[in-house]
Amino acid sequence: MLPNVHRAVFLRLTLLGLASAVLLAGVGLLAQRVEPPLGSVPIIDSGGRSYWLAGLALAMMCGVAYQLADRTTIYARVTAAARGVRYDPVPDLPLAWILPFTTFIGAVLLLSVYHSLTAVAAIALGSFLALVAGTGARHYLYDADEQARSYARVVHTLAVHGVALVTLAMIYINKLRSLYSGTAVLLLAGLLLLQLSEAEDIPLDRRVLYAVVGGLVLGEITWALNYWRATGWLGGAVLLVFFYLLAGVILVRMQRGVLVRDVLEYGAVATLAFGVLVWAALR
C-alpha cells in the first residue's frame, strides 16, 4: 500500500511542479516586457506594479493548489504510532502551502532582476526541482522508517536553505528602506523557519513562536545590513549565515534542548562563514 501512496504523491507533486514552472516562465516573459525597476517598492510604487501583482497572485494560487492537493494529514496519522509521536500527528493548521508559496515568491523576485530567455528557463527549471525535492522530502518527513525520515530531513533542509538564499538576496539587492526590506525578511524568513520545523514532535504554538522570534531577529539584521555596501548576493549570503545559525539553534532546541556544544558548533560555523564573506566584501 505505502509504495502506491508514495508513487501517487510524487506524481501529484511532479504535475504541480511542472504547472508552477510554466507559470513562472510566463511571469519571466512578463518581466521582460514590464522591466520592473530595481529599488522600487513592489506594488506600492507604480513601476512594475502589474508584474508584482501578477507574481503575488500566482504565488498565492500555487500555495493554495499545493494545499488542496496535500494528503499529508492522512499519511501522518497512519504512521504516527511508528514515529512515536507524543503530541498531535499533524498540526491543526494547514501548512503545506508555505514552501511552494515562498519558492514561487523567491523565483518572482529573481525574475525581476534576471529575465533573459536563458535566465527565465533556468529559474523555471530550478524552481521545479526545488519544489519537487522540497515537497517530496516533506512527505517523507512523516514516513514510518527512521532512515527515510533522516534522508528526507537533509533534502528538506537543503531545499529550504536554497529558497532562503535566493529570497533574502533578492530582497537585499533592491536596497529598500528597512521598513520594507526588514518587514519582507521578517515575514518570509519566519515562514521558512516554520517550514524547517515540519514534522518535529512539538506543539504548533511553540513552532510558530520560534519562527516569529527568528524572523524578528533577521529583520533587525537586515536593518543593520542596509548600511553596508554589499552586492545583493553577498548580502543575501550574510543573511543566510544568520538564518542557518538561527535555524540550527531552533531545531536543536526543539529536539533536545540547546547545549553549550551546540551553541559553539553553530556559532563557529556561522562566524567562519561571516568572516569569509566580510573578507570578500572588503577586498
Question: What secondary-structure arrangement, pairings included, does this model have?
Answer:
Layout (H helix, E strand, L loop, with lengths): L1 H33 L14 H21 L2 H12 L14 H16 L3 H24 L5 H28 L4 H19 L7 H22 L6 H24 L4 H23 L1
Helix pairs in contact: 1-2, 1-4, 1-5, 2-4, 4-5, 4-6, 5-6, 6-7, 6-9, 7-8, 8-9, 9-10
Structural description of this entry:
The N and C termini lie far apart (58 Å). The longest helix has 33 residues, at 2-34. The model has no long low-confidence stretch (mean pLDDT 86). The protein has helices at residues 2-34, 49-69, 72-83, 98-113, 117-140, 146-173, 178-196, 204-225, 232-255, 260-282. The protein is 78% helix and 0% strand. By secondary structure, it is an all-alpha fold. Helix 1 (2-34) runs parallel beside helix 4, helix 6 packs antiparallel against helix 9 and helix 8 runs antiparallel to helix 9. It has ten helices and no strands.
